[in-house]
Write a structure and sequence with these properties.
Trna Endonuclease, Chain: A, domain 1, DUF234, binds adenosine-5'-triphosphate, 47% helix, five-stranded mixed β-sheet, Rossmann fold, five-stranded parallel β-sheet, ATPase, P-loop_NTPase, alpha/beta, 3 domains, 21 helices
Length: 467
């Protein structure tokens, strides 16, 4: 099963069709599907696809030489090794002189580390010959920090050479749910809350088993792929993980403001760590949707960007001693199951947000949204506010087992008086999204009013995506 990535493939195809040399940089966190995407793209093309590993400069040059020669001259030439990287890149330029040639260097940071002058050499050959050829060079990497240092950043010799760069994001809910179509709608949201949109993590799910059995066997049990996955990935990205781990754990536990994070971790210099974690796309700082200058906002809060990171820091990392002694069932029963709905409620808001964006952009809302996000002040918050040029909808997302009633609408109307001053005279409408439906009285009210919309869980999980 290969899910979505339609717009990414389109972008790559467009560049391929440009008729000139292309230098495409694809990056994104581990397991997000970079290699798979590029493999699909290269399927029907004249392409050299090379995945680096932790080998030495000579072993990587030998392996890449073999890959290059096999594609350019056939398997008989496999043993000829280019004496220098210059020779190798010039050979690529030669081969791409009159004919499109795609060259993928996957896990490029490994190459750059094995041979530090490589970025400078590539830049030189690019400027001399490659840029005038028909090459489509794709550099790809997981270690986002390293990609930014070796290819994307100002300080890199390759800076300014790229013709396109793309950060591959995890799949959204509508795609992720295709990995567990047999779950009911509520469990699909819960599963997305736990696994997020990383295809490699979604692949571990056994759809014929219940969600809790999946969590037990595939996450909480020692030796399972996901049990140590976060530690493994973070240790590769971060040299001194201890303080980062403490900060990530605090944020996962709901400490979202800077002073709360400092207090929970005792780390005075938390800001610097948070900056790095943001650069690594592990943490994001969000501000109320109405803020016009996000960087200056005093209402910024920190959140973990990745769902599975959130789950791991909430339930695996803090319970490690118990889990190491075989206590997976106890952690599941005493913590995960009782809290799963509380844990999933934030994801439900995110699913609603994704749905409103999609609906709005495909003309299914009364107006085109320009921004969708949460709003909060020191004491109160509104789950979502959908802003258009001249419209605003305030949304309450209820992830509870009881039908939502008039009190929920009244509460949202009360909060609208707090948000109104920031809405620049836009008329306000209200929308409710509820996992468990609505009371008859609220349904009647919504029918009678043009400024109230009700959405059921089924409306929100209905899929229109491609596979
Ligand atoms: N769009 C997709 N639909 C379904 N499965 C996918 C998709 N993208 C990737 N996968 C699967 O997810 C797993 C991880 O993908 P892949 O190896 O491409 O990720 P990556 O970003 O290159 O990871 P790494 O950085 O760890 O090398 C693979 O098993 C792959 O087949």
């Amino acid at each position: 099963m290969f899910v979505n990535r339609v717009s990414e493939l389109e972008l790559l195809k467009k560049r391929y069709a440009s008729g000139k040399a292309e230098f495409f940089v694809l990056y994104g966190r581990r397991r997000v599907g970079k290699t798979e995407l590029l493999a699909r793209f290269c399927e029907d093309k004249r392409a050299i696809f090379f995945v680096s590993d932790l080998g030495s400069e000579i072993s990587l040059r030998t392996a890449l030489s073999a890959a290059v020669n096999t594609v350019l001259f056939g398997p008989n030439q496999m043993n000829a090794v280019y004496a220098t990287w210059e020779d190798l890149f010039h050979a690529l330029a030669q081969a791409a002189q009159n004919e499109r040639l795609v060259v993928v260097l996957d896990e490029f940071p490994y190459l750059a580390t094995a041979h530090p002058p490589l970025a400078t050499i590539l830049q030189r050959v690019w400027d001399q010959t490659l840029k005038n050829s028909q090459i489509m060079l794709i550099l790809c990497g997981s270690y986002i920090g390293m990609m930014e240092a070796t290819v994307l950043g100002y300080q890199s010799p390759l800076y300014g050479r790229r013709t396109a760069q793309y950060l591959l994001e995890p799949l959204q809910f509508q795609d992720a749910r295709l990995f567990f179509p047999s779950f009911d709608a509520a469990d699909q949201v819960r599963a997305y809350a736990v696994y997020g949109g990383t295809p490699a993590y979604l692949h571990t799910l056994q759809p014929h088993q219940s969600l809790s059995d999946n969590i037990l066997d595939g996450i909480l049990s020692r030796g399972s792929f996901l049990y140590d996955e976060v530690r493994f990935v973070l240790q590769q990205e971060l040299r001194e993980p201890r303080n980062y781990f403490a900060i990530l754990q605090a944020v996962a536990a709901g400490k979202t403001r800077l002073n709360e994070i400092k207090q929970a971790t005792g780390i005075e210099g938390a800001t610097a760590y948070l900056d790095t974690l943001q650069q690594l796309h592990l943490v994001e700082r969000t501000v109320p949707v109405t803020e016009s200058q996000p960087h200056k906002s005093r209402r910024g809060i920190y959140r973990l960007k990745d769902h599975y990171l959130r789950f791991w820091f909430r339930y695996v990392h803090p319970n490690r001693s118990q889990l190491e002694r075989g206590g997976a069932q106890i952690v599941l029963e005493n913590q995960v199951i009782p809290e799963i709905d509380h844990f999933s409620s934030l994801t439900f808001e995110e699913v609603c947000q994704q749905t409103f964006w999609q609906a709005g952009l495909s003309g299914k809302l009364p107006f085109v949204p320009t921004k969708v996000g949460s709003w909060w002040n020191a004491n109160e918050e509104v789950d979502l506010v959908i802003l258009g040029e001249k419209d605003a909808v305030l949304v309450e997302c209820k992830w509870t087992s009881k039908p939502a009633g008039m009190d929920i609408l009244a509460e949202l109307e009360r909060k609208s008086t707090l948000v109104r001053p920031e809405l620049e005279n836009r008329p306000i409408r209200f929308a409710l999204c509820s996992r468990s439906g609505y009371t008859p009285q609220l349904m009647k009210t919504a029918e009678a009013r043009t400024d109230v919309m009700l959405f059921e869980l089924a409306d929100l999980v209905r899929s229109e995506t491609q596979t």
